[in-house]
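Hi F.,

I've been meaning to write this up properly since the lab meeting, where we talked about keeping a consistent format for the predictions we share between groups. The idea is simple: the sequence comes first, exactly as it goes in, then the structure tokens exactly as they come out, then a line or two of notes. No screenshots and no reformatting. I'm using this chain as the first example so we have something concrete to point to.
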Amino acid sequence: MLFSTGQADTATRGGLTDNAFVASFNGRLRDECLNTHWFETLDEAKSNLEDWRREYNTERPHTSLGLKTPAELTAVWRPPDVANAGS
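Output, unedited:
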């Protein structure tokens, strides 16, 4: 896309910079897993990534969840009562 100044818009819709949560996650994945391991095989990479994903989703507290782990939050979360939402 070109602006009236003649400059090209280099940001693409749906890019990583459009979603801060995705960018934050990708940074953590890279810093804590990808940059700290040298994977010799695809199976080793899959195993290490799965270990990191499991720890990230179950054991690690998240500031966006009030310092709860995702597992703790889902254990107490109740869906809203949609039938009574309009009352």
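Notes:
Residues 14 and 22 are 11 Å apart (CA to CA).
Helices lie at 20-34, 42-58, 70-76.

If this format works for you, I'll send the rest the same way.

G.
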